[in-house]
Design brief:
The chain is an alpha+beta fold. It has five helices and three strands.
């Protein structure tokens, strides 16, 4: 009987060792799989990020509704890089539209952050209306006031 007991403990030790080895291999494979997934999926996400495309409208001298003058320089965020070449010939018209949009604002509006946001939205709406009237598919996604200087 003692021989049978020693044989059971020997096979029990081997099966425990194999079980521990199997668990270790599964954990290792799982860890490598998670690392590979996060490593390769994050590279795809970084490549898929769109790069913002900007078109600069040179400094425009405009007049507010109360007759005050100011200079403004705008950056227009566009959807695609090819939109820049489509819109560049229209920059003189954009300057005129900015001057027209400024006539809806007062000097106090231009000093206030909410007024500047409203001015940006007005310019965006005006420019997109112009582009639509000209049958141009490109649109302005956002207007950033790069520089604004109120004149005395």
């Amino acid at each position: 009987m003692a021989l049978a007991k020693d044989t059971d403990s020997l096979t029990s030790g081997i099966s425990d060792w194999l079980l521990e080895l199997a668990i270790g291999i599964v954990v290792l494979v799982l860890g490598v799989s998670v690392w590979a997934y996060t490593y390769f999926s994050s590279q795809k996400l970084e490549q898929a990020k769109p790069v913002p495309v900007w078109l600069t409208v040179p400094k425009v001298m405009a007049q507010t509704a109360d007759g005050r003058m100011f200079n403004v320089k705008l950056n227009l965020r566009l959807g695609k890089q090819k939109d820049v070449s489509v819109m560049e010939p229209h920059i003189p018209a954009f300057k005129t539209l900015v001057q027209e949009a400024s006539t809806q604002m007062s000097r106090d509006d231009m000093k206030d952050a909410d007024g500047l946001v409203r001015f940006g939205k007005t310019v965006k709406t005006s420019l997109n209306g112009y582009l639509q009237a000209q049958d141009i598919q490109a649109r302005v996604k956002d207007v950033a006031l790069d520089e604004i200087m109120l004149l005395p």
